[in-house]
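Researcher: Quick test of sequence recovery. C-alpha cells follow.
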C-alpha cells in the first residue's frame, strides 16, 4: 500500500519592543525559535560578528595549513628514510662485493705473497748481519786506537824514566820487567780474544746449521699441509658441484563427486495432459525448471514415493549418495534420490538431531544465496523488478548469513508455532490463530529492537525501513536418512523459488521475499509436524511413516533510505551474530574439493653461490693452513735471530772480560814498576804518570760514548732495514692485492652525502612551511586588528543602562549600515497615549543593542523540523515481472512479507531537540516568507521596571512573522 505523510503547518511570531529616550537610539534584535521553546540571545555588534567569523576562519585555515605542512614534512621524512635505506643497502652490497673480490684475490696471490715474505725475511737477516759486522769493526778500531795510545804513553813514560835514571841499572831492570809484563799481558789478551772469537764463530755456524735444518723440515711440513688442504678443497668443490636429490611436496587437487541438477525431467503423459512447459518461455535464456504449480506434479520432487515413478529419467549424475555430494550453488533443476545408494546418516523416529538441523540449515542457506546470486547474474530482470523501488536495481545483493542471532529467532518461531498448533500451510501470523506477541514479526522486532534504535539514531533525517518476511514449505522423507530429507528440501525449494518465476503476471511471493536485497539474515526453523497436521487435506505429506517438518525461512534486514551504499555498509557490519553453519559448509566444501600434499623428489643443480657456500669452510681451512705455514717460518726466523743476538751478547761479554783482564795486568805491572822505582830512590815520576793516565782515561771515556752511539746507530740501522724491507713487502703485497680501504671510504662518504642531502631538503621544506604559516597568520592578525579598531570606535558612543546599551548622538554623523534604522523620539502626547492605552507606534526594523555576552545570531530564515512517520507494507505478489507462461499456485506453499519503516506511528508530532528515542524523522529546511500578522496584547507589553531609569518616550511593536511550509513523501 502507499502511504503519504500528512502536512505539518507550523508558525511562530517574533515580538520585540524598543525603548526610546532623549536622543536617537539604534537597536537590533533576533529570536531563536524551536518547536517547544524559545529564548532571546544577547546581541553583539556586526563588527564583533565579523571579528569572530574571521577569527574562526583564521583558526580553521591555519589548522588546515599546519596539517598540510605536517603531511608534506612527514612524506619528505618518509621519502628520506626510504632513500637512505635504499642507498645504505646499495652501499653495503658494494662494500661486500669489494671484500669478496679482495678475499678472492688474496687467495689467488697467496703463493706470491708467501714468496715475497720469505725474500723479505732473508734480506733483513743479511742486512742485519752486515750492520753487526760493521759495528764490530768500529769497536775493534776503537780498541786498537786505545792500545796504540796506551803504548805511546808507556813509551813516553819509559823515556821519562830512562832519562830520570839513565845511569841506574836498577831502573833499567825495572823497566825491562815492566815491559815484559806488558808484553805478557798483551799476549794473554790476544790469545783470550782469539779464543772468544773462535767460540763465537763456532756457535754462530752451529746455530745457522740448526736453523737451516729446522727451516727445511718446516717448509716440507708446510708444503704437505697445504697440499692436503688443497686436495680437501678440490674434493669438497667437486662434491658441491654434483647435482643432488631433494624431497618435495606437490599439491594435488582432489575433486569430490557433486550431483548436478536434472534439467530434463521427462513426464510425457503428464506434460501432454496438462500442456506443461518445462522452461520459462519468452525470456532471453530460458530457465529450465519443472512446472511446480500443479499439486499432482509436486509430489514427484519430494523424494522417492510410490507415485515418483512419473519421473522416468533418474540420471545417475543427478543422484547424490551422501550429504557431501549435495550441490551448494542451487542451479535450476531437480535431484533424484536412490535409497539403495544412500550412505548418509540415519534420522531416528524422534526426528532430526540438533547437529542434523545445522547441516540442513547450512545447505538451505547456501541454496538461498545461490538462488539470489544466480538470478542477479543470469536473470537480472526478475531481480530488478523486485528491487526497483528499494535502490538496488543492478546492485548485487549481499549474501545471507545464518548465525546464533538468527538461530534464536528460528527456534522461537518454531516454539511459538508448536505451542499454538500452526500447521505447515499457515504462516506465523495472527490469522493462524496465535497472539500478536507470538508472530514471527514480533519475535524479530524483539530481537532487533536495540539495533533498530541505534540505526534510527545514527541515520536521523533518513528513513530506516525494516525488511522482514517469512517463507514456508514442507520437508519430508520416504527413507529416514539425512540425505533423503536434504534432497526433498532441495527440490521443494526449487519449486518455491524457481517455480515462482513462471507465474503468469507476477513473480511469486516466495521468490520476491528471497530476492529482496535489503534482507541480510535468515532464521531457518524446522517445526516437527504432528500426525493431526500431516493427516489434513492439502498437507502435501505423501507418507507419514517418518517425521515431516514445516520449514520456515524468516528473513531479516534493514534498508537505509533506499540507499544501496548505506544499506550494504550496515549489512557488512559485525552486528548480525556469529555464524553457526561455517563448520558444516566447510566440511561439505572440503569433501567436494581439497588439495592433498604428495611427497616427491627433484634434482637440484648447485649454483655458483651454492658451491661457494658449500666450500667456504674448506677455503677458509686452506687459507688458515697457508697462514699457519707462514707463521711457523716466521717463528723459526724469530727464534734464530734471538739465538744469534744471544751469542753476540756472549761474545761481547767475553771480549769485555778479556779487555778487563788486560787492563788489570797493565795496572798491576805499572804498580810493580812504580813501587820498584820508588824503592830504588829514583825521582818520583808519579805526576808524569798521572798525566799520561788521565789522557788515556779521557780517550777511553770518549770511546765509550762513541761506542754507545755506534750501538744506537747500529740498532737504528737494523730497525730502518726492517722498516724499509717491510714497507717494500707491504708495497709488493698491495701491488699483488690492492687495498680496498679507499674505495670503502669513498662509498661511505657518498652514503653520508645522500643522508645530508635528504636532511637539507627536509630542513628547507620545514623552513618554507613555517614561513608560509607565519605569513598567513600575520595576514589574519592585520585583518582582525582592523576589525577591532572599528569596533572600539563604535563603542566610544555607547552608554550602558541596566541591561541595555544606549548609543548617544555623535558629533559626526555615521552612515546607516542598512541593518539598523534610526528611530525619532516620540512627542509628549504619544508618551501619554502609550501610558494609557499600553500601545505604541510601530517602527521598521527596531532593535535593542544588548551586552555582548553571547555569539550574535544573525537574522535568517527560521528552520523547523517535521516528523514524517508512516507504515509501508509491501505485498509480495504486487511486484511486476517479465511476461511468463501462465501457471497456478502451489497449494502446499505460502508466504508472508512486509517492509516497514522502523518504529512507525500514526501521529505527526514535532520532535524535541534531544536524543530520546524517535520515530522515523527527516529534517527539511525551507525558505520562509515574511507576511503581515495580527498584533496581540501580550506582545505589546514592555518591562516598565527597566524603563524607570530614564524617561519613557515611546514603545514600538513588531508584527509577528508567519512561517509555513509543507512536505510530502511516498514509498512503495
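Model:
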Amino acid at each position: 500500500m502507499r502511504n503519504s505523510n500528512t502536512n505539518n503547518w507550523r508558525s511562530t511570531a517574533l515580538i520585540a519592543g524598543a525603548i526610546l529616550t532623549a536622543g536617537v537610539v539604534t537597536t537590533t534584535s533576533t529570536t531563536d525559535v524551536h518547536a517547544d521553546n524559545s529564548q532571546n540571545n544577547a546581541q553583539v555588534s556586526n563588527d564583533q560578528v565579523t571579528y569572530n567569523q574571521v577569527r574562526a576562519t583564521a583558526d580553521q585555515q591555519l589548522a588546515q595549513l599546519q596539517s598540510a605542512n605536517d603531511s608534506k614534512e612527514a612524506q619528505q621524512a618518509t621519502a628520506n628514510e626510504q632513500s637512505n635505506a635504499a642507498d645504505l643497502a646499495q652501499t653495503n652490497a658494494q662494500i661486500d662485493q669489494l671484500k669478496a673480490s679482495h678475499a678472492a684475490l688474496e687467495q689467488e696471490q697467496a703463493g706470491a705473497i708467501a714468496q715475497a715474505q720469505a725474500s723479505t725475511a732473508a734480506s733483513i737477516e743479511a742486512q742485519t748481519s752486515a750492520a753487526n759486522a760493521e759495528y764490530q769493526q768500529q769497536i775493534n778500531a776503537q780498541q786498537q786506537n786505545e792500545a796504540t795510545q796506551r803504548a805511546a804513553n808507556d813509551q813516553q813514560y819509559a823515556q821519562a824514566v830512562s832519562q830520570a835514571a839513565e845511569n841506574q841499572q836498577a831502573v833499567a831492570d825495572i823497566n825491562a820487567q815492566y815491559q815484559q809484563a806488558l808484553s805478557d799481558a798483551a799476549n794473554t789478551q790476544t790469545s783470550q780474544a782469539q779464543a772468544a772469537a773462535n767460540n763465537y764463530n763456532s756457535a754462530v755456524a752451529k746455530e745457522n746449521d740448526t736453523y737451516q735444518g729446522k727451516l727445511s723440515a718446516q717448509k716440507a711440513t708446510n708444503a704437505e699441509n697445504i697440499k692436503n688442504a688443497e686436495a680437501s678443497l678440490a674434493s669438497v668443490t667437486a662434491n658441491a658441484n654434483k647435482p643432488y636429490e631433494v624431497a618435495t611436496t606437490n599439491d594435488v587437487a582432489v575433486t569430490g563427486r557433486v550431483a548436478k541438477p536434472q534439467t530434463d525431467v521427462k513426464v510425457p503423459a503428464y506434460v501432454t495432459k496438462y500442456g506443461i512447459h518445462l522452461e520459462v518461455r519468452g525470456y532471453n535464456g530460458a530457465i529450465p525448471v519443472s512446472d511446480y504449480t500443479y499439486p499432482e506434479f509436486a509430489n514427484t520432487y519430494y523424494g522417492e514415493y510410490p507415485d515418483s515413478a512419473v519421473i522416468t529419467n533418474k540420471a545417475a549424475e543427478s543422484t547424490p549418495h551422501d550429504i557431501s555430494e549435495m550441490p551448494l550453488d542451487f542451479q535450476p533443476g531437480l535431484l533424484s534420490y536412490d535409497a539403495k545408494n544412500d550412505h548418509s546418516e540415519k534420522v531416528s523416529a524422534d526426528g532430526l538431531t540438533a547437529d542434523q538441523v545445522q547441516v540442513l540449515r547450512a545447505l538451505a542457506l547456501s541454496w538461498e544465496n545461490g538462488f539470489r546470486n544466480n538470478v542477479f547474474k543470469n536473470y537480472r530482470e526478475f531481480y530488478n523488478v523486485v528491487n526497483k523501488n528499494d535502490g538496488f536495481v543492478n546492485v548485487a545483493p549481499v549474501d545471507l548469513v545464518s548465525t546464533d542471532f538468527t538461530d534464536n529467532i528460528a527456534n522461537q518461531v518454531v516454539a511459538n508455532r508448536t505451542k499454538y498448533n500452526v500447521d505447515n500451510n499457515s504462516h506465523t501470523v495472527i490469522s493462524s490463530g496465535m497472539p500478536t506477541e507470538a508472530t514471527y514479526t514480533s519475535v524479530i522486532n524483539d530481537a532487533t529492537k536495540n539495533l533498530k534504535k541505534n540505526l534510527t539514531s545514527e541515520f536521523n533525517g533518513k528513513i530506516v525501513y525494516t525488511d522482514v518476511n517469512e517463507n514456508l514449505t514442507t520437508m519430508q522423507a520416504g527413507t529416514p536418512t539425512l540425505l533423503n530429507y536434504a534432497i526433498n528440501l532441495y527440490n521443494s525449494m526449487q519449486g518455491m523459488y524457481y517455480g515462482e518465476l513462471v507465474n503468469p503476471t507476477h513473480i511469486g511471493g516466495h521468490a520476491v521475499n528471497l530476492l529482496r536485497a535489503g534482507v541480510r539474515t535468515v532464521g531457518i526453523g524446522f517445526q516437527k509436524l504432528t500426525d493431526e497436521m500431516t493427516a489434513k487435506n492439502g498437507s502435501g505429506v505423501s507418507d507419514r511413516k517418518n517425521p515431516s517438518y514445516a520449514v520456515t525461512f524468516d528473513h531479516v534486514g534493514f534498508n537505509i533510505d533506499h540507499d544501496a551504499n548505506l544499506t550494504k555498509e550496515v549489512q557488512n557490519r559485525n552486528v548480525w551474530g556469529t555464524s553457526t553453519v561455517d563448520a558444516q559448509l566447510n566440511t561439505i566444501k572440503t569433501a567436494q574439493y581439497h588439495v592433498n600434499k604428495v611427497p616427491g623428489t627433484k634434482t637440484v643443480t648447485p649454483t655458483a653461490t651454492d658451491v661457494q657456500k658449500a666450500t667456504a669452510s674448506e677455503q677458509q681451512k686452506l687459507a688458515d693452513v697457508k697462514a699457519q705455514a707462514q707463521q711457523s717460518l716466521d717463528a723459526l726466523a724469530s727464534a734464530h735471530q734471538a739465538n744469534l743476538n744471544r751469542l753476540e751478547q756472549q761474545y761481547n761479554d767475553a771480549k769485555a772480560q778479556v779487555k778487563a783482564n788486560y787492563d788489570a795486568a797493565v795496572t798491576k805491572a805499572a804498580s810493580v814498576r812504580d813501587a820498584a822505582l820508588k824503592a830504588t830512590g829514583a825521582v818520583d815520576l808519579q805526576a808524569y804518570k798521572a798525566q799520561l793516565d788521565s789522557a788515556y782515561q779521557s780517550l777511553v771515556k770518549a770511546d765509550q760514548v762513541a761506542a754507545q752511539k755506534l750501538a744506537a746507530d747500529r740498532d737504528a740501522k737494523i730497525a730502518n732495514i726492517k722498516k724499509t724491507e717491510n714497507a717494500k713487502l707491504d708495497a709488493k703485497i698491495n701491488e699483488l692485492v690492492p687495498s680496498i680501504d679507499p674505495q670503502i671510504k669513498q662509498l661511505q662518504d657518498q652514503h653520508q652525502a645522500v643522508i645530508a642531502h635528504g636532511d637539507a631538503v627536509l630542513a628547507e621544506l620545514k623552513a618554507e612551511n613555517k614561513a608560509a604559516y607565519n605569513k598567513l597568520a600575520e595576514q589574519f592578525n592585520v585583518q582582525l586588528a582592523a576589525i577591532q579598531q572599528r569596533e572600539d570606535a563604535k563603542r566610544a558612543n555607547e552608554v550602558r543602562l541596566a541591561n541595555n546599551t544606549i548609543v548617544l548622538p555623535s558629533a559626526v554623523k555615521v552612515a546607516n549600515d542598512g541593518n539598523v534604522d534610526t528611530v525619532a523620539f516620540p512627542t509628549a502626547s504619544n508618551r501619554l497615549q502609550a501610558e494609557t492605552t499600553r500601545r505604541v507606534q510601530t517602527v521598521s526594523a527596531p532593535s535593542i543593542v544588548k551586552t555582548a555576552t553571547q555569539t550574535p545570531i544573525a537574522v535568517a530564515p527560521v528552520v523547523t523540523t517535521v516528523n514524517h512517520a508512516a507504515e509501508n507494507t509491501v505485498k509480495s505478489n504486487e511486484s511486476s515481472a517479465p511476461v511468463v507462461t501462465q501457471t497456478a499456485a502451489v497449494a502446499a506453499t505460502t508466504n508472508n512479507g512486509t517492509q516497514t519503516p522502523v518504529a512507525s506511528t500514526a501521529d505527526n508530532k514535532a520532535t524535541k531537540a534531544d536524543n530520546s528515542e524517535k520515530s522515523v524523522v527527516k529534517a527539511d529546511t525551507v525558505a520562509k516568507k515574511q507576511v503581515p500578522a495580527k498584533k496581540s496584547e501580550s506582545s505589546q507589553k514592555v518591562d516598565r521596571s527597566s524603563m524607570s531609569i530614564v524617561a519613557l518616550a515611546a514603545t514600538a511593536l513588531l508584527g509577528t512573522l508567519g512561517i509555513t511550509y509543507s512536505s510530502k513523501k511516498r514509498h512503495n
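Residues 331 and 374 are 7 Å apart (CA to CA).
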